[in-house]
Amino acid sequence: MHASQGRSAGLGLALASAFAFGGSGVAAKPLIEAGLDPLHVVWLRVAGAALVMLPVAWRHRDLLRRKPALLVGFGLLAVAGVQAFYFASISRIPVGVALLVEYLAPALVLGWVRFVQRRPVTRAAAFGVVLAVGGLACVVQVWSGLSFDLLGLLLALAAACCQVGYFVLSDQGADEAEPADPVGVIAYGLLIGALVLTVVARPWGMDWAVLGDRAVMDGTDVPAWLLLGWIVLIATVFAYTTGVVSVRRLSPQVAGVVACLEAVIATVLAWVLLGEHLGAPQIAGGLVVLVGAFIAQSSTPKAPPPGPVAGGTGEAARAGSDGTGAAEAGRSAGLSAGRTAP
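RESULT FIELD:
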């Protein structure tokens, strides 16, 4: 009974995380259209969340000594890279399309596994890659000569490439006796990402007056500060923490399935709140992308263990597989920039 209640609670948290992540682009796009540069919106999001997570970072300050490379990689790729490219892409193409392009990341991860790590890839995983690419062709409507903004698509693809680094980092240190705490990794990833984005975005040149004005969501005026508050508190801090907890109560695989709903949620929210309507071929293609991404992600071969483990239980194996912060954060957040990230 207790285990069942734990799984139910984990499922609820995973759904809440997917909803929170899915709303990041919908809240960010009106701010961009109101006059803020996409990089400035990203900086506000990451810097605001970093300030909220400062107490957590202080509590896990030993990570600076133990895992400096992991923290820097997480901050550069999973935080700064994914979110900067995602927000830049939604300034040019619909939110749903940008997020669906990011769902190519599991396919790109398989390329890393096959050609860099030189490990075999299952037929099911290869089939998932073909599905994802074919679905993406429907999303961008290649038969009409790529009528979408090409630069916007390339920016979304760059976000997907940063997600690859996100998942590659997830394997670092997973088999250690004392793995990095995932919430601590998130906190330091936000801090490092904020520092990097401060240099890149140069927020001192931002039009701060926009935050005191109102933004427009499909004809409705909304306070800009309210949208920013949603992005920082809900779509970042709340989304990351609930995602991590959901993985602990479920498993990376189950949480990853629920995280696939993020693209659906983002598309529906963009449809309702921003008036971004997708055609039937794009919706069908989006579903194919999600199915292909799920197959590719669930069929990705795991790295072989360093040696035989005597008497290992299923729970112990699961704890080892999602022990690092990047692993739990990435898999629980799915493939968003806000995942994750986006």
